[in-house]
Amino acid sequence: MKKIAFKTLGCRLNLFETDALASRFKAGGYEIVDAGEADIFVVNTCTVTNTSDQKCRQAIHQIRRKNPEALLVVTGCMVNHRKADLIEEGFADYVIDNERKSAIFDIVEEHFRKGQSDPEGYDRDLFSYQPAYDTFHTRSLIKIHDGCNNFCSYCIIPMVRGRSTSRPAKDIYDNIQSVVDHGFKEVVLTGVNLGRYQDGETHFESLVEHIINIKGDFRVRVSSIEPDQFSDRFLQLFQHEKLAPHMHICLQSGSEDTLRRMHRFYTIAQFREMCQRIKGFRPDFNITTDIIVGFPGETEETFKESCDFAREIGFSHIHTFKYSKRTGTKAAVMPDQVPESEKSRRSEIMRAISLENKLRYFEQLLGRSQKMLVERIDSRGIARGYGENYVPIQLPGAGLERNTFAEITLGEILNKDNEDKMVFHGYLKKFSPK
């Protein structure tokens, strides 16, 4: 039995694809290992920032240095962006683009059968992943969409993921029913631009409505999504017990001027109205976001506008990015590039706002009930997981089981001064065994 290890960097789309590949290899008789002495290593890369590229290269070099005889496969967005460079560097045995990522099992099998394989001989297919039963996560990630047509001035994703493409709705429904029947309690819809999903007459809202009516004891979470004027019909779906009241809606800047130069497709007023409507349907709705600091031409004044807007909306978490110049994008050649030291200063300020917002949101939930999915029970017997509002919870795990739901009352907030470790201590109300 050959051993295979996976290293994944980047977004939930990469995590889904790695889960599916790992599950396929396990079904094919391979042993999945964390690291160490594996026969095959698959590195699923990200290229959204320069830092992402550096982390990917570091991972590739480290794996090759420690495992000189192993088969090393590099795939993902960095391949689509820097394929020639990766081939020239010569660390990887195979460099496989996103469009052929789903064929990695067959490529590896052919390699061991014939001594070599030609990835270019495999068809391009973004969605031919089998349902992932044996994954690295309690949640089951479900890929519904790939690519993007927005071409924001800072973003390289359309170049490495291609144009907007939607997975057939029936395949999605079958995938979800399959993983739910297998025992998964939470599915997470993932893709590059979820709101632009369209398969014939099925758009994103009707897709979600159908999904939450699939039979089974599970819940659905929407991952990162672009801002949209969500209809009242869509917002009403969040009253359904299966649809988790949380969305990560990508703002990128709270300055009207900066949004225009980013070539974003909404105004601050539209984003504010959207958030107000969401909160109108569910006052406890958890809205998180991405914000870029140090975008070319961002002044102290426009940065302050971004900070003020972040406080106004009250995002419970802000994933703060320092602007990273990506060759081939319009922003890379814009004047008034912000010094790295200033980006770092602004990043720290935005992270402090995120901490303040998170604590304020958590305080609003004190004493409330949450349906917690028990994701793990650690060596100290502490059960950990998330409620439907995507808030982390821990409590004594005696009598609880992994991958089950438990009704919890939210008690004390622990680690208030550390956003990454902030968590509710929960009190068990009701446990729902398998």
Give a quick summary of the entry.
The protein has 434 residues and is an alpha/beta fold.
Kindly list the characteristics that best describe this protein:
12 helices, globular, Rossmann fold, 434 residues, 35% helix, 5-stranded parallel sheet, alpha/beta, 3 domains, pyruvate-formate lyase- activating enzyme, single chain, 5-stranded mixed barrel, OB fold (Dihydrolipoamide Acetyltransferase, E2P)
Describe what you observe in this structure.
This protein is α/β, with parallel strands linked by helices. The protein folds into 3 domains: 3-121, 3-Layer(aba) Sandwich (Rossmann fold); 140-365, pyruvate-formate lyase- activating enzyme; 369-432, OB fold (Dihydrolipoamide Acetyltransferase, E2P), CATH 2.40.50. It is built from 12 helices and 21 strands. It has helices at 12-27, 50-66, 77-89, 104-114, 157-161, 169-182, 204-211, 232-236, 256-262, 268-281, 300-313, 340-365, and strands spanning 3-8, 31-33, 40-45, 71-76, 94-96, 140-143, 145-146, 165-166, 186-190, 198-199, 202-203, 219-222, 224-225, 246-249, 286-293, 318-322, 369-377, 382-386, 392-396, 405-414, 423-432. Helix 11 packs parallel to helix 12 (340-365). The longest helix has 26 residues, at 340-365. It is globular, with a radius of gyration of 22 Å. The model has no long low-confidence stretch (mean pLDDT 94).
